[in-house]
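Note to self: keep these together.
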Amino acid sequence: MANDAAGLEKAARLALMASGDDWAMVSLYLPGTAPQHVCTAASPAVRAALEGLEAQMHSDEYTMPQPDSGTLPDACRDLVRRAGLRSYRALRRRFSDGAEQGHCVLATASAADRPAGRGLELLADLFLASASERVAGTAGARQAQEHFRLLFESAPGLYLVLEPDTFRIVAASNAYLHATMVTREQVVGRPLFEVFPDDPAESGGSSVAPLRASLQRVRQTRVQDVMAVQRYPIRRPEAAGGGFEVRYWSPINSPVLHPDGRVMFIIHRVEDVTDYVLAHRPSDTDVSERKASRLEAEIVVRSYELKRMADSLAQSEQRLRYVTRATNDVVWDWSMADDSLWCSRSAFEPLGSVLARWTHLADWEACIHPDDRERVGASLRMGVAAGRENWAAEYRLRLPGGVERSVLHRCFMVIDEQGGPQRMVGSIADLTEQKQQEARLRMQAEMLDYATDAIIVRDLDNRVLYWNQAAAARYGWSSDEVIGRPVGETLYAQCAPSDFQHAMQVLMRHGDYSGRMVHSAADGRKFIVHVHWILVRREDGTPRAILSVVTDLSEQIALEQRLLQIQKLESLGRLTGGLAHDFNNWLTVILGNAEELVDALAAQPQLRDIARLIQMAGERGADLTRRLLAFGRRQALKPQILAVGEAIESIRPLIARSLPENIDLQLLEMNHRWCVYADRAQLEAAILNLCLNARDAMPNGGKLAIELLLVEMESPAAERSKSLPPGEYVVIAVADNGSGIPQDVMDHVFEPFFTTKDEASGSGLGLSMVYGFVKQSSGDVTIYSEPGRGTQVKLYLPRAHTEPEPRPGCGPDARSCWSRTTRSSARISRPSCASWDAPSSKRPGPRKRLRGWPLANPSTCCSPMSSCPAFPASSCRSAHARCGRACVSC
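Structure:
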């Protein structure tokens, strides 16, 4: 039953839609054949569970018990649990027709805790009726075939059915077997001339040769061949004495044609005229009378055949007239002997009325479009010269009035016995409307190829019918690779079957579906898209196909994640900034009092050491507070106009001392005097921080490059930073070829306290401080990294179109006076120096430092302080006496 698979698949889809369950399976059992199963589940585990539950059916209806009830066998219970089935229902329907009996099973299952198989009874009854009809139709076809065989074998005529290539006997009538004294087992399956060979005792010529030539003509010309009366001796059976018996036959050989025109069989029909010929045979003495009698007998036999042929010819001509009147094609016949051309009048105007007036081949050639005439004529002449039986060509005809029609010209060449062309018979089909429709479809397809969205059309079996260029570019499959294939093997290979089935149910119920789904590409990539399915219907309202418009959401999802990350960082910045600001005020009190205690406890060393521990702990808290304020953008900066290249060059020695010898430091394009408006100390600390991070990423050495660039943002989407307004920006790019940053870490690198190092190596605030400083300076920071290849961080700072400001306290050559700093040397935010200007009676003495101002980290160099009026030089020197370092101003 050829249509069983399609019928089962359709029944499974209908069961799934009617019940609203997750999976459906339809099974068909016929005697003598293997069971057929069609399941909508893509998971092998679900298929195995459904087949295992079907094996538990002992009645016409079955509902799965609870898996924990102990009713199911252990193996079946394990399959059910592995597949995630919660409910199952199956119905069995039996059918029979005579000896052909069978049954079908419809079942649905669900992963939800609700009864499965709603509305299954009606579908089971409908499928039973359809299956019964197919079984009855198959049995009827076999019965009809048996009846035809009996009728053929019992026919009163003498018939053989031969294969056209080897002339092997396929079938024989009982009358033929009786006339030739053979049995059906002796002849069926054997070549004709092996069963009926020449009589070796005959010397007057071969009897086989004329019959073989007639059969070959039928095979070549595909028309009936009537032979003259033939003398063909037949071999006697051994029981009848053996040898050969003289027989006279009147053969007619007729072809049986396939719809495509090839010869399928040859019917060999004969009449035994032996008695007639022998009865009219004269004596041997009168040779002339003997010949006349033989001719008379032959004429009598041929007269009957000619009458039958005339009747058949009249019927064929009538049939040809009816066909030519009914068809839109023009049928034509060209005789090469006299160059006569006959064309029928087709039902299609104006082509038929014009071609019907053609009488010679030149009339046809004159109507061919001038641009096609030479090509078509040369093709036809080559076909005739090569002796090809079939010829076809597409070209344009120019009819009276300037009307042009596109036609398809096909013909068959009739070959004579000598192998030469005799005539050509064929048809001319008008393709004008088809060509116009193809042009419209081609234009529509080209327009769809300009769409940026993937546009896909599939049939109701989810096989691809159309695939535009955007789909080919996005998924990596060409249209030739996917057309005809189910989308479950390509686009939805990694999509959850339940999601796809739910979308199909919504589509069939409402006519369209919109939502996000998971698509797969040819290289295995998986990404989220927005699909819009539209159910295309015929004029009568029945579903015809599914149109899918697919929009890639990769950029939108990336933008959403970026926005979420920005919002998270902003929230963390506000939180940490507020906490650090209050904590800074508390540290001011703690450090001020710790300094007083250190001075007051000079005579008590033990207590003075405790006071110094308090002071050192406060200084570390001050450093942490500074970093938090930088991340939260609430640190008070001292921006100034500075040349970035000179600032980086000034800290080259400090960077070099911080790097091991196996790291090659390169400063590129530092000779440009591009200026920015930023806090110099914070900028130097940020660059040094990035260099130290690069150092940690290259434990075995490598290259560290700091490059200065100038870029112009023409739109907010320029470069990699999309949050900057248009304008010129000085870019500081710090790149290394170290271990790189994994992708799962990239989204968290700017978060405070996030670090991949151990607690002794980092606090997780280095990049947070850089991020806060750059954002507070109206810039942006981007990071790009590939594991195993390195990392590049870019700081974008707005360009200032003025000369850099000289440092206070420096000589006329301000460019020679630059501060040295490390990432831990910058201090926390403090009030301006003027706010601390008090009366002289309360001003701190030479050994007193400013209340609340934390000391520099003793392990690093501090920044110059002599420029502040609240700090006399003696205080600066006193501070350096504690850390053992000297600043530039000192």
